[in-house]
Amino acid sequence: MANTDFPLIFERGKAGRTGYSFPEFDVPEMDLDNEFDRNYIRSDAPELPEVSELDIMRHYTALSRRNYGVDSGFYPLGSCTMKYNPKINEDAARLAGFSHIHPHQDPKTVQGAMEMMYDLQSGLSEITGMYDFSLQSAAGAQGEWSGLMMIRAFHEANGDYKRTKVIVPDSAHGTNPASVTVAGLDAVTVKTNEQGLVDLEDLKRVVDQETAALMLTNPNTLGLFETEIMKMAEIVHKAGGKLYYDGANLNAIMGYTRPGDMGFDVVHLNLHKTFTGPHGGGGPGSGPVGVTSEFAPFLPKPVLTKKDSLFVFDYDRPDSIGRIKPYYGNFGIYLRAYTYIRTMGAEGLKKVSEYAVLNANYLMRRLEQEYSLPYQQHCKHEFVLSGKKQKQLGVRTLDIAKRLLDYGYHPPTIYFPLNVEEAMMTEPTETESKETLDGFIDAMIQISDEAKNKPELVQEAPHNTVVKRMDETTAARKPILRYHK
Ligand SMILES: *Cc1c(COP(=O)(O)O)cnc(C)c1O
């Protein structure tokens, strides 16, 4: 890594040095007789480093090099689908006709933007086998919540107030039970069996007249396809419950099967995962929600529809769960997803799933020779290894993850799902070459050797990153967010 010990910009300043020039002052001066001005004027000047333009440029460039992203290296963070973000998407998102419009504009003047959104809704409906989509929600988690609110509204519209339980597998992503709670419902756990799939007997045991829904991702968080999904749908539907699909793992099945065909009633997708929106660092996301026709009246409003030859936002939706996001959601991410879908085409999207699954299985079969693999069958787009062999040597999964940083790789998702000891959830995605996968395999094998021969090397990692091993508890509880000399 280049020049990691550069002095921080705060220590670099020299009194009187500047890197900016302001235009002539052409607004009224501060008026100290005016109460507003008086209240908002600060008493002393801020202590800012006085630096040249070149110094500040180097400061920010150096900081950017401390960062790690898909454009800098392999990023097998399971469940997050850190695939390549095609740069043509960025061109589309920056087209002046899209980037210079305003959400308060008269819809008649932004018909092209609305048509793009409408086409995206239709494309997502086709990909998932759903009847209609709302793009509004800003993340998968918000999609989950919106979908559950619709399911709740549906049951309440039928006078079915007792249906408050949502069944969630013990391997589920943490947002699933959290969304259930925020939607005012109660999460009930269903167990995973020895094959890593939902235990049907346990499902039959927990389903009852109070079941609002079963919430599931397929393939599940272990990267395994729930082969009994049709039976599960039947069990839940027979009891009057609905099926919610967490679409975060769509990258494994796109073009081959559809949640709509598996019996799901409400789904969300993560445009920033499957559909190449750049993410990491928390956003911007987009978590569109799709529904069967039965749920269409409950979609968030306004609903984008076509009347005659005009695209309109329909606010006249008495059963809608309401607006869930200001304006129309993260429009820039829609454009990226739309561009991706149109450039890939139906055949291209199918290939995505194929290669995602092929890459994951290649990685899994090579790595199971050094790391323990709790579920032996073929995986879909990701798999979960266990670091329990290494733990017996005193090297934890956290240590392995930190050591990977020394080799220049982002680690897999660790300690999730919770039902696998020392879990390493690994998702290579379809966009990585065999050479990149081989490089990662070599690093993982080397780390396994180090765990046997030089465990302290792994236990004390990382050694060549800017920030060394952190005290993560203190960092989370008492973060130091300001610069201190
Ligand atoms: C990422 C993810 C979510 C949450 O999606 P966000 O867009 O991060 O809110 C939910 N479930 C699974 C399985 C995920 O991987």
UniProtKB/TrEMBL annotation:
Residues 51-300 form the Glycine cleavage system P-protein N-terminal domain. Belongs to the GcvP family. C-terminal subunit subfamily. GO terms for molecular function: glycine binding; glycine dehydrogenase (decarboxylating) activity; pyridoxal phosphate binding. Signal peptide: none annotated. Pfam families: GcvP2_C, GDC-P. One of its GO terms (cellular component) is glycine cleavage complex. It comes from Lentibacillus kapialis. The glycine cleavage system catalyzes the degradation of glycine. The P protein binds the alpha-amino group of glycine through its pyridoxal phosphate cofactor; CO(2) is released and the remaining methylamine moiety is then transferred to the lipoamide cofactor of the H protein. NCBIfam families: PRK04366.1 (NF003346). SUPFAM superfamilies: PLP-dependent transferases. Its EC number is 1.4.4.2. This is Probable glycine dehydrogenase (decarboxylating) subunit 2. The keyword RNA-binding does not apply. The modification N6-(pyridoxal phosphate)lysine is found at K273. The glycine cleavage system is composed of four proteins: P, T, L and H. In this organism, the P 'protein' is a heterodimer of two subunits. Keywords: Oxidoreductase, Pyridoxal phosphate. InterPro entries: GcvPB (IPR023012), GDC-P_C (IPR049316), GDC-P_N (IPR049315), GDC_P (IPR020581), PyrdxlP-dep_Trfase (IPR015424), PyrdxlP-dep_Trfase_major (IPR015421), PyrdxlP-dep_Trfase_small (IPR015422). It catalyses: N(6)-[(R)-lipoyl]-L-lysyl-[glycine-cleavage complex H protein] + glycine + H(+) = N(6)-[(R)-S(8)-aminomethyldihydrolipoyl]-L-lysyl-[glycine-cleavage complex H protein] + CO2. Its cofactor is pyridoxal 5'-phosphate. GO terms for biological process: glycine decarboxylation via glycine cleavage system. CDD domains: GDC-P. The keyword Hydrolase does not apply. It comes from the Bacteria. It is an enzyme of class 1 (oxidoreductase).
